Predict the structure.
Amino acid sequence: MRVKNSAKWCEYSKIRRYFFAVIIFAVIFLMRYSLHPLMGEYMPYELFFYAGVITGFFWGGGSGGIIVLLGTIAGNYYFVEPYQEFTAHTVADVVSIADYLASCFLVIITIEYLQRARYKSELLLRVSESRYMTLLRRENQRLLLEREILKNN
């Protein structure tokens, strides 16, 4: 059975989900910025990856993707030398960023797919239970009617 509204598995509106994403991005950015004196250029995108995956799990792939994209831009600008500049990168840097983005979006898309499948199975279970209850009621009505007919004969 095809379920057309399986994309609506998240109960929050799109505006609220993207608002959550921006707030979570800001919190994660402030955390990473405060850790920057200790970490330096080491792992500039990791916290954004974790935040994107967790946000994608709870509020959908779009929200997780926003965090990953904003985190890539912010991480590249604030946490990669030369700091607070967008400069030409080496081929290795570009490949590393592309690999990071591909990994992030692969995980987020997989989570979105699994959430939609879970929601679809819940909807189909509800439909199945509803149909079963309808079938039981009709069968009970048929048995009562049959019993009444036999009683009158």
Q: What stands out?
A: The two ends are 45 Å apart (CA to CA). The mean pLDDT is 89. Helices lie at 14-39, 46-59, 61-78, 91-152. The chain has four helices and no strands.
